[in-house]
Design a protein that fits this description.
about 75% helix, Protein Yjbj, Chain: A, single chain, mainly alpha, about 0% strand
């Protein structure tokens, strides 16, 4: 699966994102709308981590899909 496919199936993937990052609000997840960079930014913001850590988390999550 690639990020274009994630974007196309975002409504199906949203629950998985909420399970992984419980601090993300429904609005956060809706605004991400399947875009990798936006998801990284939201994770970084809500969890107070460096960008590299947020990228690592998103990458790990993506590899498990």
């Amino acid at each position: 699966m690639n990020w274009d496919q994630i974007a196309g199936r975002w409504k199906q993937v949203k629950g998985n994102v909420k399970s992984e990052w419980g601090r993300l609000t429904d609005d956060d997840v809706d605004q991400v709308d399947g875009q990798q960079d936006k998801l990284i930014g939201r994770v970084q913001e809500r969890y107070g981590v460096e960008r590299e850590e947020a990228e690592r988390q998103v990458s790990n999550w993506f590899s498990r899909l």
